[in-house]
Amino acid sequence: MTLEQSEFQKLVELMLELCEHHHGDPAALDAILSELKDLYKKIPIYPGIITMCLPKVVQPVEVDKLGVGDEVIFSLKDGQIVSGKVAEVNPKEIKLAESKQLNVSSLAEKVVVQKEAVGKAKRIMRDVIEKEWPTLDFEVE
Amino acid sequence: MPELKFKRGDVVRLEGQLSLEVKEGEVSVSGGLQGKGSKVVIPRSKSVPLEAEGEALIEYTLGQEGKIEQLSERTIPKEWDTLISEVIQRRPKTILVMGNVDVGKTFFTTYLSNKLLRHGLRAGAVDSDVGQADIGPPTTMGLGVFEQPVALLYEVPLSNAYFVGSMSPSGHMLEFVVGMKWLVEHGLKKADLVIVNTPGWISGGPGRALQLYTFELIGPDMVVALQRERELEHLLASLPPSRVRRLPVSTKVRPRSHAERAALRAMLVSKYFEDAGKLVLDLRRIRFERSYMGTGTPIDPQTLESGTNVIHAEKIPEGLLLVTRRKLSDKTLQELESKFRSVRVIKQGSERNLIVGLVNDASELLGLGIIEKIDYERGHVVVLTPVKNADEVAAVQIGSMKIKPTGEEVGTVRPGTF
Q1: Residue A28 domain-assigned (yes or no)
Q2: Do B35 and B8 fall within a single domain?
Q3: Does an H or E element contain B87, and which?
Q4: What's the CATH number where B45 sits?
Q5: If contacts are CB pairs under 8 Å, which of residues 7-36 in chain A contact chain B?
Q6: Residue B98, SS3?
Q7: B358 and B333 part of one domain
Q8: B63 and B185: one domain?
Q9: What is the predicted pLDDT for the residue at B377?
Q10: Is B264 a domain residue?
């Protein structure tokens, strides 16, 4: 066999890996796919940079390190998945705006999450190209 | 004007902006001998070493951020001079210079070429740093022949250029290897030897492939591996050891950030298009290269869709290629797809700001252009370019970057769009 002559192969393999890693977490997959679409529109000629940026979209985070404005996904201990934007952080709870409870496919305007109810938390980084490689953050039609 | 006296062996670092004139004696700037009366100009953000060949006196003027720094020792590793002695003795025809980004490949090439010039050898330098091309404009690879010593590579006049159409080898591997080979062949006709600066993409499958297939295609007599540590060893393991020379990097190489690189690219592009004017090219006379457009059998747009949405249509082996004013309706698209298998749609106006290469019938690059518009109805393409004579242009090579004449990069284009 010979060497890979394009980084698209690596990108496909990364997508498969991310799908497996976030299996059962539609909020994470949705965030990754929407960022992939955005990145591909901006820099279709740089699959290597897309591959570098994509794993940074959904990252594990400690609940106490979250701040207002962070876009998050919580996998609650009871199996529910809740996503949204942090609107308020209190010692015992986090209030989310624009939130979704994905396991029951229902939309909720606001959700209050008890910190002790959180099993795992992930923070979503949107506009990853702007943060990682700002000179390639092109306007797209 | 301030003066500086040197004695043999003195070393200073010249940081731009500055200009100097040698008033007495001889100095070596980037390895090039500068005698009495020689003038050297170093622009902002560039720096080079000056070494006194004996007692010498210079007059200098410092501009913004310019300075002259006294150094306690040479910045050029002694291994470089050992290699140069070998080159003078063995006279290789082609030398490939490999190295990661920011290891000083450009400076090494300048230093080596200047030193060879002292021994009567004229080196051709192939610059493949398409993002910040020193020889030729950005998005191209250039060839320059050293006829006289220079402080910086960009002073070497452009002899030939090859259009790549991007700021990086990613997605442009073929343009890179073909371009390097094409320039080496031209260089060997004009110079005693050719030094090829390969891109700094050295790892990952495509990076390895680029370096190793370039080696296979060019078949250099010598490979100079400039490394900080052992970052090229994975490539060198696949090369014949007898042709490889490992060199340390110069101690004063300063890495550039993405933002610095982008700013430098913008400056080079804006400078290139400073005197550009509009050139109208007749679509019936010129051809598109590296493009699907113009490669198929024309179809009357009226036979495809009623109305005036479709401006241009052609049947290509891959299906149907259309240029439209607006987005096609889903129904029309489905009908066309069922008839032609695959439909490529180019929205009118999406070609604006696309970087292109304008070449003559011998496939020689006349200059870069930025497409303003392709007018299919009137049958012409309007390009902003420093090229003045439309009759010389035989073909328009399509690139994959969108750039404004100010140098601002405004997007990249998916290969196969046009």
Answers
A1: yes
A2: yes
A3: helix B78-90
A4: 2.60.120.1030
A5: 7, 9-10
A6: strand
A7: no
A8: no
A9: 87
A10: no
CA distance to partner chain A, nearest, from residue B184 (Å): 23
The verdict on residue A134 lying in a domain is no
Domain that residue B337 falls in: 298-347
Q: Examine residue A40 and state whether it is found in any structural domain, yes or no.
A: yes
At B137-182, the pLDDT tens digits run: 999 999 999 999 999 999 999 999 999 999 999 999 999 999 999 9
| ipTM of the complex, rounded to two decimals | 0.80
Structural domain total, chain A: 1
* pTM of the predicted model as reported, rounded to 2 decimal places: 0.89
| Distance set, CA A124 to CA A134, B33, B314 (Å) | 18, 58, 45
Given B255, B281, B316, which residue is the final one in a domain? Answer: B255
Say yes or no: B175 and B187 in one domain: yes
Report the chain A residue with the minimal C-alpha distance to residue B350. Answer: A141
Residues B86 and B195 reside in one and the same domain: yes
Give the nearest partner residue to B258 out of A42, A135, A138, using CB atoms.
A135
Decide if B224 is inside a domain. Answer: yes
Task: Give how far Cα B17 sits from Cα of B21, B59, B200, B255, B301, Å.
Answer: 14, 14, 27, 19, 58
On whether the CB atoms of residues B415 and A45 are closer than 8 A, the answer is yes
Q: Residue A103 is part of a domain; what is its CATH number?
A: 2.30.30.100
Instruction: Find the residue in A nearest to B417 (Cα).
Output: A44
Alpha-carbon separation of residue A19 from A11, A54, B86, B402 (angstroms): 12, 12, 55, 33
Q: Are residues B183 and B276 in the same domain?
A: no
pLDDT in tens, B207-225: 999 999 999 999 999 999 9
Shortest alpha-carbon distance between residue A51 and chain B (Å): 12
Partner-chain contact B168 A46, CB within 8 Å: yes
CATH value at residue B206: 3.40.50.300
Q: Which domain holds residue A56?
A: 8-129
HEC profile of chain A: CCCCCCCHHHHHHHHHHHHHHCCCCHHHHHHHHHHHHHHHHHCCCCHHHHHHHHHHCEEECCHHHCCCCCEEEEEECCCCEEEEEEEEECCCEEEEEEEEEHHHCEECCEEEEEHHHEEEEEEECCCHHHHHCHHHCCCCC
Q: Distance between CA atoms of B165 and B397, rounded to whole angstroms?
A: 8
Contact A10 B412 (CB under 8 A): no
The answer to whether A45 contacts B410, with C-beta atoms less than 8 Å apart, is no
Q: How many domains, chain B?
A: 4
Do B343 and B225 have their domain in common? no
pLDDT 10s digits, A118-133: 988 999 998 888 888 8
Q: What is the pLDDT along chain A (141 residues), one digit of tens a residue?
A: 588 989 999 999 999 999 999 988 999 999 999 999 999 999 999 999 999 999 999 999 999 999 999 999 999 988 889 999 999 999 999 999 998 887 545 556 688 899 999 988 999 998 888 888 888 888 887
